[in-house]
Amino acid sequence: MKSKYFLSLTFILIIKCMSAQSLPELIKNGNAKIASSDFTGAESDFSKAIKVNVTVVGNYLDKLKKYNAMNEYQRSTSDMPDGFVYKHDLAVPYFGHGLALAGVGKQNDALADFEKAISIDPSYGDAFCERGVIYFGQGDKNKGCIDLLSAKVVGSEKAKSLYEKNACSDVSTAFLATGNTKFDAKDYTGAISDYNYAVQLNSESADALIKAGECYMMLKKYDKAIAYFKKAQKIVPDNLVVLIDKGSAYNSIENFKEAFNDLSIVIKKDPNNYEAFMQRGLACEGMQNLNSAIYDYSEAIRIKPKDGMAYYKRGLANQDGKNKSVCKDFKMAASLGIEEAKSLAEGCNPKPKAD
Questions:
Q1: What is the per-residue pLDDT across 129-186, written as a single tens digit (0 to 9) for each?
Q2: List of E strands, the chain
Q3: Candidate ranges 56-65, 190-199, 225-234; pick with highest mean pLDDT
Q4: Phi first, then psi: what are they for 288, rounded to 5°?
Q5: Residues with Cβ < 8 Å from 110, sequence gap 6 or more?
Q6: Topology (CATH) of 170-237
């Protein structure tokens, strides 16, 4: 009896092995069924294909996660010194499964599959494109345009056509507007995200680059701010706002020479720019050129005679000298509401003579 049982079991296993399809066959059959609109059959084939590689994909994604968490030194000394090698073939079954699910109307499930395919191969243009199509179908034009742009960048002709057809460049303006709203609400991190989307959708959006840089200024991440201002300057080299912003950022990291250069360009083009004189005065102070700083603060006072900060700054720059106008500057600054100047103004009052 036992021998008959083992013979039967062996026969069943042989039949199963003979009937089992290889991964390439499953993918080929699934694609053929999608082409003939047999989405239910395709879904079955791609489900089997996913199961074949489920362990391999899990190990691959674990390795990718660890690689992404490494710093540059760790990457250079790892077993992947030349970078992580993405395995496109592992993403294909998920993409096919997503197409099949979309074909039977399971859009949200299809999104999950396209996201999985993209996580495996971040340059999978077709997956970005199809995910973007679903987003459009769900009424989310913003996400749809972002995905179509990503697909377009890696060469998807279908995505390029759909991107232009849906006027995605217009969405950049919408992201800029929402970014401005978040900026005004002091949600600088959220604003940066929207500004970056605006730039992705329109690489010539200097306004978005400038505003993102200003967000990084508010977050005191000055190096990142300067990087954004430089990108904006390449697009609008004569824009005074970006020059003032960049000069201010350089002052914040005590690179006073670069700050002076940027702000001097602004002043040459706009001799009545209060902010440029104030910031250049700060740069001059940083370079220990107090006479030039005093000149710049005086020019700022000329432009805005009712702004106390320039009086206060000029008074500070003059403190070590014998100029009698120091007390006048502190008193004027105090009268114009500069709290820091009040104690200095009071110190200027002559001491009463002793009896």
A1: 999 999 988 988 888 888 888 898 888 888 888 887 776 767 788 889 999 999 999 9
A2: none
A3: 225-234
A4: 65, 25
A5: 98, 99, 101, 102, 130, 134
A6: 1.25.40
Asked if 330 and 348 touch (Cβ cutoff 8 Å), the reply is yes
Lookup: tokens for 255: 């690179």
Question: Which tokens hold the place of 128?
Answer: 């970005």
Q: Which of 276, 215, 268, 272 is nearest to 241 (CA)?
A: 276
Angstrom distance (rounded) from CA 308 to CA 278? 12
From CA 21, how far away is CA 51, in angstroms rounded?
A: 12
35, 43 contact by CB (below 8 A): no
Residue 346, classified by CB atoms within 10 Å of its CB into exposed (0-12), middle (13-18) or buried (19+), is exposed
Buried residues in 170-184 as b, exposed as e (16+ CB within 10 A) = ebbebbbebbbebbe
Domain boundaries in the chain?
14-165, 170-237
CATH classification code of 14-165:
1.25.40.10
Rounded Cα distance between 206 and 232, Å, is 5
Helices (H) and strands (E) in the chain, counts: 21, 0
Give residue for tokens 């989310």. Answer: 140
Q: What size, in residues, is the chain?
A: 355
pLDDT digits (tens, 9 = 90+) for 76-122: 888 888 888 899 999 999 999 999 999 999 999 999 999 999 999 99
pLDDT per residue over 244-276, tens digit each?
A: 999 999 999 999 999 999 999 999 999 999 999
What CA dihedral angle connects 8, 10, 11 and 12, to 10 degrees?
90
